[in-house]
Amino acid sequence: MRPQQIQPSSIRDASVQFQTRRHFLQKCQIGLGAIAAASFSTQPVRGDETRGPMAPRKPPLPPRAKNVIYLHMAGSPSQFELFDYKPELERLHMQPCPESLLANQKFAFIKGHPKILGPQTKFQQFGAAGRYFSELIPNMASVADEWTIVRSMVTDQFNHAPAELFLHTGNARSGYGSFGSWVTYGLGTENQDLPGFVVFVSGGNNPAAGKAVWGNGFLPGVYQGVQCRSGGEPILFLSNPKGIDTSTRRASLDSLNRLNQMQAQAFGDPETLTRIEQYELAFRMQTSAPATFDISKESKETLEAYGAEPEKSSFANNCLMARRLVESGVRFVQLFDWGWDVHGTGPNDDLNHHLVQKCKETDRPVGTLIKDLKQRGLLDETLVIWGGEFGRTSMNEARGGSKFFGRDHHPHCFTMLFAGGGMKPGFDFGTTDELGYFVTENKVTVRDLQATLLRLLGLDPFRLSFPFQGLNHRLIGPTDEGKIREELIS
Amino acid sequence: MIRYRIIFMTLIVAVGTQVCLADEKISFTHQIRPILSKNCFACHGPDETHRESGFALHREESARSGGESGRRGIVSGSPSESELFRRIQSTDDDERMPPADHAESLKTVEIELIRRWIEQGGEFDVHWSYRPIINPELPKVTNQSWPKNGIDYFILQRLEAAALEPAAEAAPERIVRRLYLDLIGLPPPPEKVAEFSANPTAENYERMVDALLANPAYGEHWARMWLDLARYADSQGYAEDNIRQIWLYRDWVIRAFNRDLPFDQFTIEQLAGDLLPNPTEDQLIATAFHRNTMTNSEGGTDDEEFRHAAIVDRTATTATVWMGTTFGCAQCHSHKFDPISHQDYYRMFAIFNQSEDSDMDNNYPFYEQFTPQQTAERERLQFAINEISKQIEIANEADKAGLVVRRDQLANQRNQVSPITVPIMRDLPTEGRRQTHIAVGGAFYNKGEVVEAALWPEFAKAANQRVDRLVMANWLMSEENPLTARVAVNRHWEKIFGRGIVETSEDFGSQGSVPSHPELLDWLATEFRAGGWSMKQLCKLIVMSATYRQDSRVTKEILARDPDNRLLSRGARYRLTAEQIRDISLATSGLLSPKMYGPPVRPPQPKSGLSAAFGGSLDWDPSPGEDRYRRGLYTLVRRTNLYPSFMAFDGTNRTTCTVRRINTNTPVAAFVTLNDPAFVECARSLALRLQKESVGNNQSDRLALAFRLVLARNPSEPERTELEDLLTKQRNHYRERLDEAKALAFGDSADLQTNGEGNPIADSEIIELASWTVIANVLLNLDETLTRN
Q1: Predicted-assembly ipTM surpassing the 0.90 threshold
Q2: How far is CA A405 from its chain centroid?
């Protein structure tokens, strides 16, 4: 018999039942199995009183991964300059694109009859299998044998905000729970003194869909991603105000707790007790989070390997932070890096200057992250995901006659990389045609991806659901078109 | 082939699936339909395209006749001959329903209920919320002295049946705070509490209710609730998330509540104000209700795709707000649980599909209006232009050229005062109308059969007229439609009691919960209609009841017998909304600006250093002056970047219609009220206020005033001792650390560092102020402060 999921009777019950553990156990038909026994526990399991909606839960299926680090390259990198080597494009460079590719196609910006654009970088072979990687990403290439490369990703959306939403929340409109919020809803998190789902943004801009890509949608608010920063205060309002030091805070919380206890005794509302716990949790977070977020504690070698600089805000810092958080028992860390939307309207978004710069900023930290996780024995239990929200066209965009090379949005194929967490290392999956326009073999849809990733974490993508507006919503959507792609799992 | 697999939720039905005495009449609506709906309808329900074996259980006729097998589904009085019963209790995996790979088998109690229901005849009846509203008699109760109005009879009857007694009336000061928070969303001034507590008569209570309903803050508080439904935001959403000027609509809602615009008129003006004969400016602005849909101005997007998405949103939002019906489910296929076919959906969709807007960045079509300031500025410039024109007429040639240049400059200035542009609804002219196709599978480009605009046939049997938004709005408010009144009164009930009579206030369909007090719901709906749809009168009716005035204290025993307070055996107690938490902190500290209406404001928020993907910076410079301290309702809602402290307290980013906010209790929320500079500023101001306003100006008076300001009551002895101890501790602490005391007492406000005469403040005063700021910070974080009790 399949294990049950949390099935609250209604949305409000979902919040009500989280108020106390007793309530939680009585009201919600617990599933995710034994809430009593934390499976992956690396942190001491606290007493019952702290068990709440974020308490670690045993996954219903045997898990392959425990944590996720999702590196989202917002704007969508070009597969042709990085992983999907197409000599044929080089041969046809600046030839008019075959008519057949344009039939019934809609483009975001391309107008008229576009020309084929050859790869703008050189490729070299790496690793045991001699896989092709672009010269722009030597560090990612240096861990070639760790990557599972899927060149046959497809999506339904070719505008940024809807495509990001579809990828991360299973729906192209906002208002749905994000991947990270589903995972923490399903599994809780190991370390109760840190948020379970942490988000970092770099590159100066939010992703196109804004906070909705790490939002909780209709899931309880406790599952939304907590946006943190690698420079300055890591969590919003974490620090005490000026003039309140730790001893004053402790003294005032002691008073607050005692006054709240009086209130609890007078009114008997379990919610009051929960509030006391949450304030205590906040205090513990204040104590433990700054240390966890302080990368200056890392060795000089490590900082250099990542290219991280304490006190600054950068993608490199965020990668190092991701490792520190996963190491500390944070379930889901998501990095959004803006600036991959390489249309070629000028040197600030073209393939020959801008993409080169983006690769310089990100290649070293990503390569180092994989090595670092591996070295610390964390890669097996940590699923690392790298990718954008869609692909780029085989043709030059040439918007307004631009002389800079760039590629338009392309939903029919794109490349994603995975490492660790039960994915097959050194494995290539899926192929595209000679021009890299359509998938020729082993198409992987966004729904397949979502189903597969949930399965790696030990969640049943078909059963992980939450009732909202008359339907039991799931990350993978209402239909069963998404499949767990066992081929990808080691 | 795509097969739908719906995972079923367990409905905990208040009056639902308990086993009752053998001879008790089983209720189809309350006991049987929920079981069938959750376990069977996915494959044997209204959706004909996914129906298995030709067997449909949602209609009596087909349930009796059976499916392709030829076996009769339900045979009255004979479970053993009924295929339905045979299959649900079968132990054979190939026979058992629902199939093993699909869902769990039915529970023993459920099977037993179905058996007894079939024995009793297996009769169907219409889903409870689809039945006409009948005005029920007030039930008989034993305790005749408790009820204060009709509501109480219904509540008391259930309590007496459960051998429970209603709670005593809450203490006067608690009642005052409750009433203020529920009706105007703000804490009561201490003098009002004292006034009522001194003389808590029925007349004074009613007088206070009337005064609050007449208070302009009432409109602000209730507008917030409506703006969640209207998904009102000050930006367009999606990647650019540009700011749009639609706040005149927000102001319209506030005014509509304050002038008690009857709910039918309120509805008609928002849904179809533009279609009324000679619509007024206000009626046009009201139609911005449906222009709160998102606009995608990201480069390279297909405007038709997002125009279609906006129509989908309008259809779903209308059904949710007025009918508590999940129409959206029928966007891709016929509804699986409720009688809404794929065609029905697109016929309703067609009603909205004639509006002129088409996902344009400039929000076209819009209504232009000059603000009073702009009008004054234009008049000033025009006056100057007229004056110069007069001079030009009499000027000599030498001066003329200069004057003309000056006049042209002024004219240019006047023309640059651009009006605010409020997006409104406007239908296409008759000759340019769109044809509505069924979007197959919900995909806008996948055009199926053509459909004509029509009302949902469930409640619109007759009419063969041309249906537009105005016809639809009138139909929603007509007696034909039993849902609107029920849904509206339930929502009001929910906002006041924290939970609706129908808990799933967004879903009155078969997947929703059943009402805890069905007759009360109908009685309220009847009163609401009969009272001319007055929302103020509805609020008054509810708060005048004895049910409302109950104490919220609960014993372990009562908690065990009425754990979720479904029977209302006590007063309701729940956390305030994000906006209220801001408002009460500002109000108690004396910072709150009473200014109403106008463009959205930007209270201080931490800098993120980030921009929207293709739009401007997400950071903002705080609004100057009192705009920094306005009610939460006026804070700019940028959809991709909700104001952080609202986000922590379950505020909504208003991308879609939100009927109920889910309250969560997290450490991130604690950080806001403890550390957010906006809340620290409130604590500091409260400390200053205590210093200034406390009459006796000794420690104990100040503490008492603090309690009265924040909690509307005096502290108990242990509470006083607790805080006095903390004060002593903090004074000692800050005496040793004067820099800390200064940092806390003054924050960033240099002007606070001197007293009224410009002399520096004494160290001892700084220590006092810092210590009291700590006390104020504790008070503003109390569970009781954040809670409506």
Answers
A1: no
A2: 29
